[in-house]
Amino acid sequence: MIGKAINYSLNQQDYLERYLLDGSISIDNSAAERSIRIFATGRKNWEFCNTPNGAKASAIIYSITESAKANGLKPYEYIVHILETIPKHYTGTSKDFLQDLLPWSDKLPENCKSMKKNS
User: Fold this and answer.
1) What are residue 73's DSSP bridge partners?
2) Under 8 Å CB-to-CB from 39, ≥6 apart: which residues?
């Protein structure tokens, strides 16, 4: 068994050392694990997730919220902005305006910004 682990490490050496070449790459996945902890601990309390549609809705809102946090936005204000903007601009044909709603867009209103950006 130890031989398999050593062989795996040797075969994956380039990938395992990648963080040494790029300072922006984290040495671990703690940030990712922290961001999903609330979802894992709260799922038993979220009764609306007992259907596939409920689970999908939960995943969507959770993804938007965590993306907002990771990009230094206030989640509530960001979601309100999205929900107010989409009906005003959606025509059914062009979805180009959606680029301006992404959490890293420079075109977001100032009231959405202000949280410290998470890394």
Assistant:
1) 113
2) 62
Long-range CB pairs of 84-92 (<8 Å, 24+ gap) are: none
Q: Is residue 70 part of a domain?
A: yes
Say what the pTM is.
0.63
- Asked, for residue 39, whether it belongs to a domain, the answer is no
- What is the residue range of 96's domain? 46-119
Could you give the CA distance from residue 58 to residue 101 in angstroms, rounded to a whole number?
Answer: 20
- Same structural domain for residues 54 and 24? no
**And the tokens for 80?**
């309100």
With respect to residue 40, please indicate whether it lies within any of the assigned structural domains.
Answer: no
Instruction: Please report, for residues 78, 86, 89, 102, 116, the alpha-carbon distance to residue 83 in angstroms, rounded to integers and kept in the order given.
Output: 9, 6, 11, 13, 23
The pLDDT tens digits for 65-75 are 989 998 999 99
Domain count, the chain: 2
